[in-house]
From TrEMBL:
GO MF term (any one): isopentenyl-diphosphate delta-isomerase activity
Stretches that traverse the bilayer: none
Record-listed E.C. numbers: 5.3.3.2
Cellular compartments per GO CC: cytosol
Biological processes per GO annotation: chlorophyll biosynthetic process; dimethylallyl diphosphate biosynthetic process; isoprenoid biosynthetic process
Keywords attached to this entry: Chlorophyll biosynthesis, Isomerase, Isoprene biosynthesis
Source organism of this protein record: Vitis vinifera
The protein, known as: isopentenyl-diphosphate Delta-isomerase
Pfam assignment, any one: NUDIX
NCBIfam families: IPP_isom_1
Coiled-coil segments: none
Family recorded in the similarity comment: Belongs to the IPP isomerase type 1 family.
Domain Nudix hydrolase: 107-259
Pathways per UniProt: Porphyrin-containing compound metabolism; chlorophyll biosynthesis; Isoprenoid biosynthesis; dimethylallyl diphosphate biosynthesis; dimethylallyl diphosphate from isopentenyl diphosphate: step 1/1
């Protein structure tokens, strides 16, 4: 049994009442009132019929799809949003990553990308596991995933839902416990919207929250999610970019990571070193990148 299957189970809101969450809030964020969300009032999840789900389930038994990844593809429910980041519904991780669905239904889901720096201001990178359905074995930022359709990860104020999800996935993927990466230590710097095919069947279409955190942590990668990890300095990363561009060593970078590198990362790295990350934050703009 994997770490993720031990710790995280999810029952759809239309089948059960969700508990009230009472998170702790940092001083730099104003108090937020938790509340029951009106799930039925504005979500279009009902459009996925049983027959559609059954067909997708049959298609999911792909040769080579790892059992853990298959389970997550159907248990995880991503949050569907429009291009202004307004929640419009939810759907399975499987459907959200099918290029056919992305193109025909314009499915766009909320995501996050964590950039964790140590006290030497080195950035922690991970290589995605070989069993990942999208972009296997590519190098990317510290952690990339999705807030799920659960109350604690649907809180929009101050990106709290996304920060809760980031804390969950740092434990799931890298073995970093919650006490070493509390939600108040994540600084949301911006949002970007992008689309990227992985292969003929799978791809990404995400509205991605970019979260920075500076912490010294112990890392214990989950092999179902992560093949390798390493810390890089600015110069190390520039050499990694050179190798990827030259096609050396078969090295590949995830498209979302490359977009962040090309548009934001090095200027934000300056703020990491100066301790002025909040000065760089712009959560009003949604950068539409390709």
């Amino acid at each position: 049994m994997t770490l993720s299957s031990r710790l995280y189970t999810f029952a759809s809101p239309k089948h059960c009442a969700l508990p009230q969450i009472s998170p702790s809030f940092p001083l730099k964020y104003p108090p937020i009132l938790t509340r029951s969300l009106p799930f039925a009032s504005h979500f279009r999840r009902a459009s996925l019929s049983f027959s559609t789900r059954s067909t997708a389930m049959g298609d999911a038994v792909d040769a080579g799809m790892d059992a853990v990844q298959r389970r997550l593809m159907f248990e995880d429910e991503c949050i569907l949003v429009d291009e202004n980041d307004r929640i419009v519904g939810h759907d399975t991780k499987y459907n959200c990553h099918l290029m056919e669905k992305i193109e025909s239904e314009n499915l766009l889901h909320r995501a996050f990308s964590v950039f964790l720096f140590n006290s030497k201001f080195e950035l922690l990178l991970q290589q995605r596991s070989a069993t990942k359905v999208t972009f296997p074995l590519v190098w990317t930022n510290t952690c990339c995933s999705h807030p799920l359709y659960r109350e604690s990860e649907l809180i929009d104020e101050n990106a709290l839902g996304v920060r809760n999800a980031a804390q969950r996935k740092l434990l799931d993927e890298l073995g970093i416990p919650a006490e070493d990466a509390s939600v108040d230590q994540f600084t949301p710097l911006g949002r970007m919207l992008y689309k990227a095919p992985s292969d003929g069947k799978w791809g990404e279409h995400e509205l991605d929250y970019l979260l920075f955190i500076v912490r010294d942590v112990n890392v214990n990668p989950n092999p179902d999610e992560v093949a390798d990890v390493k810390y890089v300095s600015r110069n190390d990363l520039k050499e990694l970019l050179r190798k990827a561009d030259a096609g050396e060593e078969g090295l590949k970078l995830s498209p979302w990571f490359r977009l962040v590198v090309d548009n934001f990362l090095f200027k934000w790295w300056d703020h990491v070193e100066k301790g002025t990350l909040l000065e760089a934050a712009d959560m009003k703009t949604i950068h539409k990148l390709t």
